[in-house]
Amino acid sequence: MGFIPGNTNEYLLYLINDGTNRYAPASGQMDPRLPIKPPRTNFFGFPLLPPIADANPSIRHSISVRVPTRLKVERTADTLSVTINTNSFESANLTVGTNMVTGVQSKIYVYPEGEPRPANGGYGLGGTDFNLGTIFRHTKQDGIPLPGKKYVVELDLILFETDIPPQHMWSPQGSKSYKVLWQRTLKQTVE
User: Fold this and answer.
1) What is the chain's percent helix, strand, coil content, to nearest 5?
2) Is there a single domain that holds both residue 92 and residue 179?
3) Residue 145 covered by a domain
4) Per the confidence metrics, is the pTM higher than 0.85?
5) Which ranges of the chain would DSSP assign to H, the alpha helix?
6) How far apart are CA 126 and CA 83, in angstroms?
7) What angle do CA 78, 83, 89 make, to 5 degrees?
8) Nearest by Cα to 84 from 115, 118, 126, 143
9) What pLDDT digit, counting tens, does each position of 36-63 carry?
10) Counting Cβ atoms within 10 Å, is residue 80 exposed (0-12), middle (13-18) or buried (19+)?
11) Nearest to 91 by CA among 124, 128, 127
């Protein structure tokens, strides 16, 4: 690995603890160049976008956002489909920081009525138009729906702001400026 004179020569070093005040390459001594990466690229070759420099969560302005109030759940013999009911939106007045990015995080849970809600749900990120697509459960792949069982569908929605722009493998809550602006759980039981 060479360094360009006069360049900032910024790299991420992936190291492991090798004793008191000592560190070694995470790849071991055989090929110590492997854990040296340029800082603006993640492991998949996509650019890693830095936080927005002029974002300021302390200077706020009002916005009005249309937020959903109901789900649209349809069931066939071997499929359960879930989407947001586009006829159920209402206005919500929020305040957002200057130049902050807004987005929606969703988690879906589908489980038999009378059973506890699972610990883990399906996770997604989207825009403030709440166009999260349609989520499907199939009897063959997921074991849902089964004949004669009622199911509870819950969709947790969080509208947030962050100074980290959308990108591949986006993790908006990784910012110290991440803030929940609105949240709601939409719930429906389907026979």
Assistant:
1) 5, 45, 50
2) yes
3) yes
4) no
5) 139-142
6) 13
7) 155
8) 126
9) 666 555 556 677 788 999 999 999 999 9
10) buried
11) 128
